[in-house]
Amino acid sequence: MSKLSYYLLSFIFLLFSILTIELLYMYSTFSLHVKEKNNFIAIVGLPDLAISNGANFIRHRSYSDTFSIFSNGPELLEYFPSTFTYSYSNNYKNTPSRIEFEN
Amino acid sequence: MKINHYLIGFAISSLFRRDAKSFFIIFIFTSLIFLLSSILFISNSIKEELFITLDSLPQITVQKLQAGRHANIEISRVDKLLKLNGVQSAIPRVWGYYYFENAGVNFSIVGIDSFDKQYKKNFEELVENIDFDELEKNDSMIVGEGVKEILSQNYYKDFFNFVKADGELKKIKISSVFKSSTVLESNDIILMPKNLVLDIFGMSKLKVTDIVLEVANPQEIPTISQKIKNLFPDTRVITNSDLRVSYQNIFDYKSGMFLALFVVSAFTFFMIIYDKASGLSSEEKREIGVLKALGWKIDDIIKIKFYEAFIVSFISFLLGIIVALFFVYILQAPLLRDIFMGYSRLKPAFELPFILDLQTIFLLFFLTIPIYIAAIIIPSWRVAIMNADEVMR
User: Fold this and answer.
1) How confident is the model at residue B104 (pLDDT cuts 50, 70, 90)?
2) Is pLDDT above 60 for A99?
């Protein structure tokens, strides 16, 4: 094996090692706190993440606004069904939905 | 098939011979993989964060609609809902938004029956330094980290004066703060006893915001929703699967934005590929010609080209993934995260949860590496099947 091949193989090996160390580090330090989060949601009972709350219809979209998510969004024209919080599910309007549910 | 390591050695030397070009290709390729995988990683992490709590959300929420808007629902309906077969429990809830003008943010105020013992165990895990006796005696609340921070900035360290519906002030003590592990869910939440919420919002004691139902058999949810709809035609029945669809929708929208990014970068990549595939440089052609003249077989030449392309693309791919993981999960994706966060005065300082999404990695692998290799091999093969003198001429 030539010197260059040896260097290249070592480099690829180094990359793999870095990737492994990185993944191990992340697996050991990050934890999802699934139980705590579920406990919290069970008490509060509200959906969505507290990422954005400048307007109340953004925070709990599915509960707050009756039809659409971005009713004030100037950059996005409303179109069914993508920008709508809800499909017209048969629970809601007694009409068949155009969104297919995955159960 | 036996791997000829002399051929690999030759491929590596030829890569080093064209070092500037090889490094440039590796740089571009790495950047592309980095950009695509970072966005996919962020999206997957936030999605995971949403979906892990989906099962804890209410199975059925009943809201009243009046004149096309959400209105408060009569508490007397709870008893009628409880009489429906299959309904295990029906809990009236009081919650709403409190706009804090000084900071321009909305807090979500949630009322609970009282700081009961039933919650005690859950609370001990969620809240730091909780004193139950004090919570019950005084008017006090538990707030999210974001709320605490905004209030402190406005000099409310231990209490907050809510402006009630009639303009009077209601002083409520901040008893504790939710732990930071739930910050993505709890950042803007204020939790306090129900009677205080009713007082602040000036709501009638006979009405609540919505009613949450628990159903013994989840398969009955659609039937029960239908029954509620028939019983109270003015209600909107939101099931757990509606919430799932709503979550999915927001990601379809956000994903649409990064799809635009994806298309631009993929287009650039394919343009480079097209440029490569449309013909080799005269230098590369001459190299193949010389090899043929020296007696190399067509498949040896193709093998060399394969090794070259594979080494370049594989190293770039690994580098791209390593840098993306570092950028997203250790640096917490500065700049790119804002695509998903949007504008908010009350941004939570959260950690993106680490999810190793193998599907994404494989998708990127098969979307980029085989195409790149093909774009190298096909023109080389076209040249290699010509006569050596024709190529070198």
Assistant:
1) confident
2) no
List, in sequence order, every beta strand (DSSP E) within B102-143: 105-112, 140-143
| pLDDT over 60 at A101, yes or no | no
Chain B: closest CA distance from residue A70 (Å)? 10
- Which of A10, A15, A34, A49 would you mutate first to test chain B, the one with the most B CBs within 10 A? A49
Q: Residue written as tokens 């790495």?
A: B30
Three-class SS state of B299: helix
Of B87, B184, B32, whose CA–CA distance to A37 is shortest? B184
The residues, any chain, with a CB within 8 Å of residue B379's CB and separated by 6 or more, are B276, B277, B278, B279, B280
Q: Please list every residue in chain A whose beta carbon sits closer than 8 Å to the beta carbon of residue B57.
A: 41, 45, 47
Tens-place pLDDT, residues B303-342: 999 999 999 999 999 999 999 999 998 888 888 777 666 5
Residue type, A101: F
Apex B86 CA angle, B85 and B92, nearest 5: 95
Go through chain A and tell me how many residues it has.
Answer: 103
For B115-138, how does the pLDDT look when each residue is reduced to its tens digit (9 = 90+)? 555 566 677 777 776 666 666 677
B197-223 burial code (b ≥16 CB/10 A, e <16): bbbbbebeeebbbbbbbebeeeebbbe
Cβ neighbours of residue B116 closer than 8 Å, sequence gap 6 or more: none
Q: Tell me whether B331 touches chain A (CB under 8 Å).
A: no
Taking CB atoms and an 8 Å limit, are B346 and A1 in contact across chains? no
Determine whether the interchain pair A101/B112 forms a contact, defined as Cβ–Cβ distance below 8 Å: no
Per-residue pLDDT band at A84 (split at 50, 70, 90): low
> In angstroms, how far is CA B7 from the centroid of its own chain?
45
Name residue, tokens 């408060």: B72
- Is 50 exceeded by the pLDDT of residue B282? yes
Are B332 and B352 within 8 A, CB to CB? Answer: yes
